[in-house]
Amino acid sequence: MIGVELGKLLRRPRTWVSIFLLAALPTVVAIFLAASEIAPRPGTGPAFLAAVLENGALYPAAALAIVLPLFLPIAVAVVAGDAVAGEAQDGTLRYLLIRPVGRTRLLVAKMISVGSYTMLAVAVVAAVAYVVGTQLFGSAALPSVSGTQLSTGSATLRTVLAVLYVAWSMLGVAAVALFLSTVTDSPLGAALGAIALLITSGVLVALDSAASVQPYLPTRYWLAFIDLFREPVLTRDLLRGTALQAVYIAVFLGAAWANLSTKDITS
Amino acid sequence: MIRTTALTKRYGAVTAVQDLDLHVREGDRFGFLGPNGSGKTTTVRMLLGLVLPTSGSIELFGSRIGKQALAQIGALVEGPAFTGHLCGRTNLRLSDAAGPGGARSTRRHRIEEVLDQVGLSGVDRRPVKAYSLGMRQRLGLASALLRRPRLLVLDEPTNGLDPQGIREVRELLLELNRGGTTVLLSSHLLSEVEALCTRIAVLDRGRLVLQDDLSAFRALTGLVEVRTPDVLRAGALCGDRVEGRLADGLLVRHHDPGELNAELVGAGIHVVGLRAQRRTLEAAVLEATGAGSDRVAG
């Protein structure tokens, strides 16, 4: 069943179109930067973008910061929201269950499929950005955000960790969307519900008067991956972000399982 | 093969199915009839584990409903459904690979076999979304047959088929049944059930109102249809035994058509045709059920 789900994911044109578009956005930004050589002033615009003209090897991190606020979570929410509700809408959910595929097994397969999509999307964005960045801006020894030099090995490791951290954050989004996907028979509704939660969280994170709830908001620590490029690495927000996403993933996947395994399938 | 005991399903305040005791025997061609909204689909979904019963129990193949039982069932529920952008063969392959009991080594062979059975052997690589309604129905049937199930549960299997297709499906089901497959056919089309089934259950507003062999439904009414051009004389002869008039004859109460014939001919009445009247399935079902529950009268 897991193989079947992965096969369906890879066969689906939507998977590749969305990943292509995700990788295209940082590429377009890079082309504009390279052509004009006008970088945003330090401290403005997406993280790292001010620094990439000097060093293309930093571009994967910049690319993640470009797609992270909106594009990437929407893509993940759409794919995860479609996971169960899409099958329900097509009527294929009932045929899967009477095949029979156990409900828990189905959910696990869907989780792995959505997780694979998330990993694939983040990895492709980072890889494309690395190629585009080093080609357009050239590579030099990576300066850390703190100003010191990073060795190539250390920089690569930090970039990989950044990719993993962003993917982990996106799995939190995926878990919420997957839960909603088991609640409704409308894939659009499930995706929209997850996006609504993220937008609410984004607004509250920017609101000083909501400071008391901010540590629990899903988007609060998303950009903490920037801290990976400090010297020494500032781990406080990274660890909190990792733990917070783990709670979101556990709670919503648990809720998805509880809901799907006791639900009457009337679609 | 299937036995339900006091099976009940409530959705909030609405009782969809109540105290259903259904019994399908091995080798039956079981017709499950009822007006729209009578609970047929809910019952079928409970038998397949999609809808969880509020109370009561379901026994499949002599054990509780579960994975092992479901693996021996092929089903078509409320129309076929496929992944639209993939072709028919790919859909069958993915479905077969998704669950237990579909050996990989025989998969290609089994797929070609069922496509041939349902009359789709020449189908090309076009996606299922480009299929006609009838082709989808055939593909749905193929999917149900893929692992040679012991029990086929079919909900309106001839939906969207032309008369030729309906006939083909009926012949296929008869052939499978002869090979030992038990068939549960849920339908609101009396003619379809009458043409195929050996045993019938009728559901009305969530309750089982009839469950018997088809022959019991089609019992003799005790009336004889007499066709004759001499309606007046025949009527005079039979007197108060006449129960009604036909377009070209009379309906006479008599226990033996042969004796009645002798009596009529003996009196010099020209008899064109004579037939013991049987109750139609339609009459039996209409008698047992009320109006369809999709009818909302003021």
Please, could you describe this protein's structure?
The complex is a heterodimer of chains A (267) and B (298). With 267 residues, chain A is mostly helical. In chain A, 70% of the residues lie in helices and 1% in strands. Chain A has ten helices and two strands. In chain A, helix 2 packs across helix 4, helix 7 packs antiparallel against helix 8 and helix 8 runs parallel beside helix 10. The two termini of chain A are 21 Å apart. The mean pLDDT of chain A is 91. In chain B, strand 8, helix 6 and strand 9 form a beta-alpha-beta unit. Chain B is elongated. The mean pLDDT of chain B is 90.
Shape assignment of chain B: elongated
The overall pLDDT average of chain B reads 90
Q: Which pair has the most extensive contact?
A: A-B, 24 and 29 residues
Looking at how many chains there are and whether they match, the oligomeric state comes to heterodimer
First-residue to last-residue Cα separation of chain A = 21 Å
Strand content of chain A: under 5%
